[in-house]
Amino acid sequence: MTRVLAHAHTNWSHDSSLTIADWVDIAGERQCGAVLLTEHEETGWTAERYRDYVEACAEASTRTVQIVPGIELNHEGFHVLCYGLQHFASRPSSLSDLGRWVNDQGCWLCLAHPGKYGWKYPQDLLNAVQAVEVWNSKWIYDGPLGPHPATMALALGKQWLVGQDAHKRAHLSNLYLETASDQILPDLRAGRYRIQMGERVWTPGQLHSRSLAPFAQQIRTTALRTGLPAYRWTRRQLRFVTNHASSALVRRG
User: Fold this and answer.
1) Among 113, 142, 180, 216, who pairs with 192 as Cys (CB 3.0-4.6 Å)?
2) Which CATH number characterizes residue 174's domain?
3) pTM
4) What are phi and psi of 249, to 5 degrees?
């Protein structure tokens, strides 16, 4: 079995300071045999830059840790994960062409953090993806509780994947994929994997059948969506007051 840390970002993305080498160290610390990277498409890629990135991932990989390159695509505002992509040249704009483009490279498309979009997707995008990130452990999404009922409903008939969406060490959690071998992408595609959170391990089917967690997740999501805007408003007001007071002190000085 290989423990896999999925949905991670490096400084090849615009919003992470972690290097590829940092992820090798983190994987070692957490006894992971692989890290699935997903760099933001919005960062800007050319065929040459992506080739350099893939080479950097290969060079950083060790005998015990695979660093797997990947992209978090942005399709009309919706983020879609693609693990293991090897070539990035003139990215197709249509969903049908995009699906063929990634499948030709032995990859697939996975909806990222569906709760962010209120679980509302255009039907053509739902038809184009093979997997759904049913559990994103970042606190603003699913946190430690597990899949939201709306996510599970959305993911029916699709592959169930999970990820940490880690841009920095503070985002790390104990949520992993566990593949049957060190052939990470083939195992994931074939469904030869389990989901691990801390000491607990489930198959996707067992994760679906948990009883209390979905109800608790509904309550958590409602509380977050109610409290988060108020928290952000309070931070903006405090920042305004602090800046105003600092400017006043400077003028008096």
Assistant:
1) 180
2) 3.20.20.140
3) 0.86
4) -65, -40
Query: Which of 80, 149, 152 is CA-nearest to residue 112?
Result: 80
Q: How many domains would you assign to the chain?
A: 2
Residues 153 and 250 in one domain: no
Residues 153, 244 share a domain = no
Whether residues 160 and 227 share a domain: the answer is no
Domain housing 231: 211-253
Helix (H) or strand (E) holding 133: strand 131-136
* Residues 122 and 192 placed together within one structural domain of the fold: yes
* Residue 29, token pair as written in the block: 């610390």
Compute the mean pLDDT over every residue in the chain, rounded to the nearest whole number: 89
Which of these, 97, 73, 69, lies nearest to 84 by C-alpha position?
A: 69
Q: How far is CA 251 from the centre of its chain?
A: 46
Q: Which ranges constitute the DSSP H helices of the chain?
A: 20-29, 47-60, 95-103, 123-128, 149-154, 184-190, 204-208, 212-252
- Provide mean pLDDT across the span 147-154: 92
C-alpha 140/C-alpha 113 separation (Å) is: 10
| pLDDT bracket for residue 188 (50, 70, 90) | very high
